[in-house]
Structures are given as C-alpha cells and as structure tokens.
Amino acid sequence: MAPGDPILGLTEAYLADPRLQKVNLGVGIYVDEQGQIPLLRAVREVEQALAAQAKPRGYLPIDGLPAYDTLTQHLLFGEDSPLLEAGRVATAQTIGGSGALRVGADLLKKVLPNARIAISSPSWENHRVVFGNAGFEVVDYRYYDAATHGLDFAGMLEDLGKLEPGTVVLLHACCHNPTGVDLDAQQWQQVVELIKARDLLPFVDIAYQGFDEGIDADATAIRLFAASGIEAFLIASSYSKSFSLYGERVGALSIVGADREEAARLRAKIKQTIRANYSSPSTHGGALVAGVLGSPELRAMWEAELAGMRERIHAMRAGLVEKLAAHGAPQFAFIQQQAGMFSYSGLSRAQVDRLREEYGIYALGTGRICVAALNRSNLDYVAEAVAAVSR
Ligand code: LMR
C-alpha cells in the first residue's frame, strides 16, 4: 500500500468527515466569502463564447496553444522583454505547474544526468517527489527560520554558495509554499548574483503570480534573472490559482536559452519530453486562459478579480491575527508578515491533530495552513480553535 498524499490525501479525509462544522485549511485552494471556489467572470465570458461556437476537439500541438504560450511569456517576462524580443524563450503549455516541473525535470535529467537539485528547506512536498522520481538526488538549502518565522537569508546564501557548479536550484518566485516567507527585491538580486557567480542553474516555480503584490511585482525574481545575463534558466508556471482553474490543469514550462537557435533546440527537446509523458495538453483550459489574456477587456476584468482575491487574502491574514489575539494568542502576529495563500503557523503535529480531531479543522502535519480558505464565517471558529490548542 502506498502512503496517502500529504496534501491531496488530507482533502480526501476532509470530504469523508461527516461533521457539519469543518474547515479545510490543507490544500492550497482559494475560496471566496461564501466558501466556494470562484468561477471568475472573465473565464465565464470566454467559456460562454466557446460553448456557443461548439468547436470540434482535435489534438493541440505537443507544446499547446501557440497563443497561450506567447501570452504566458508576456505575463512572466513583461511586455517589453528583451529576452522575448531576442527569441530566447521556449514555452510549452503543460498539465498544470506539476506537469511543467516534471517535464522540466525529465528534460534536465537527459541533458545533465549527473546534476543534483537543491530545494528550499522546507519546500512544497511534491517538489522532492517529482524530482526524486525523475532520478535526481535532491538536497536542501536553508530557507525558513523557525525562531523568527521568517527567512534564514544568511543560511540560504551560505548553502547556495556551497553547491557544485551546474546544480539545479529550485526557487519559489513568490508566495513561498509552504511557509509564506518570501525574499524582497534586494535579496533576490543577491541570490541572482550568487547563482550567476557559482554557475548554478535556476528553476523558478511561480504558481501564485498576482497573489501577493501584483502580476509584475510577483515576477521580480524572473525579471531579475532575465536581466542578469545568465544564459539559461527554467520556469514552471501555473494558472490554477490565478485563474481559479484548478481542475483544468493549466500550466507552462518556459526555458531560456543563450540565443534564438538554442531556444529552438530547447523547444524541440521540450516537445520530445512531453510526447513521451502525456503526448499533448488538453484543449479547454488553455483556450480559457488564452481567451482572457488575449482580450484587453477580459484581461482587465481578470486583473481586477485577481486583485480582489489578493486583497481578500490580506484581509483574512489581518483578521486571523486580530482574532487570535482576541482569543488570547497574540504570538501569531507574524502571520500578517507572510505572503500568498500559505502560512507556516508554527503549530506542532500534535496541535494539528487536535485541530482535526476536536474541531474538524484540517491543516498539514507541518503546521502549514491555507489562509485563502478562511472567510468571515469560519474565521472566528478557526481562531478560537487554534488559540485553544496553543494554550
Ligand atoms: C498545495 O500545495 O496545496 C497546492 O499546490 C495543491 C497541490 O497540488 O499540492
């Protein structure tokens, strides 16, 4: 029997829980004030137009919808990117961000069979699994400082500085999963310089673009790598969260090469890898994203909806901290400093177990909670329960 997945397995347990009062703070899914996963208006507009056309469903190209790939590049690198101008980026639509990671990992394993990969300690549970299954030795670099609930930046620089040249370094562009602890622009600049000096290969995972400060600010790491003169890096991106299209599996793998010719070779390699994995991506989700991003009007509508989600998360962070303090637990003020959907709450496994058993509140065993699953109806209940188990 294989063990259950630490994140998706928890949702299974949550769904099977017969209690009426229960809250799923496990999986990273944004829900609205009504506790529902939103269907964005901009997405619905495109969906209705697609349904009216009722087009046949042929296979997409191996690397997905060309418009989707181009629009994704602009979102990641910015509208006036010299890198895009120079044709140095190969992008392929993938089966979610996870698909992008796996395709990137398989491709890297072929071209750099002896490289190791370094991930943050801690990182998204599935990073270790995806790269491990692709045959990589996975090592950790220091990242989270449990004492301050913040970043161990000195430890991070020290560990990155000791990696062998050619090591792949996985970095979270924003809204670090699971901690919610991010680098600021100045710290990113230092990391970029170190990576360049040590000849490491960055693999940036950006699954929450727009969930902290905004589309461009959240892509700071990518923009700095692009401007750094580093010849090659990879990006796994996802629209699951930013478009609220979780089940459509809409992601992309982008690889930057030294020049247009290398990008063409990278595109061929990406396509070869995808063909051997799942052949080609699916049509519907890609068409939704491309339809929104390709229309100035719908794009503006989407940006406003994305801002609404971001602001609600900020409000929930503030609300949680306030209510925890009101329930006698002021030690959680750091939650307001963290960014994105997640917070490493500092709760122990035993406290998390109590939350689940006594209150029907599901959090990861590591203490990660999804702040985006809070709303005005469950906030007080959660705060009271967290305060109770922390006493
Ligand atoms: C999470 O971390 O909860 C999300 O990225 C969903 C997943 O696939 O794990």
UniProtKB/TrEMBL annotation:
Protein's recorded name: Aminotransferase
Record-linked Pfam families: Aminotran_1_2
Cross-referenced InterPro entries: Aminotransferase_I/II_large, Asp_trans, NHTrfase_class1_PyrdxlP-BS, PyrdxlP-dep_Trfase, PyrdxlP-dep_Trfase_major, PyrdxlP-dep_Trfase_small
Keyword Transferase set for record: yes
Enzyme Commission code: 2.6.1.-
Record bears the keyword Transferase: yes
Quaternary structure annotation from Swiss-Prot or TrEMBL: Homodimer.
Cofactor field: pyridoxal 5'-phosphate
Catalytic class of the enzyme: transferase
Keywords: Aminotransferase, Pyridoxal phosphate, Transferase
Top-rank taxon: Bacteria
Residue ranges of every copy of the Aminotransferase class I/classII large domain listed in the record: 22-386
Family: Belongs to the class-I pyridoxal-phosphate-dependent aminotransferase family.
CDD domains (UniProt xref): AAT_like
UniProt-recorded Gene Ontology molecular function terms: transaminase activity
Naturally occurring in which organism (per UniProt): Frateuria flava
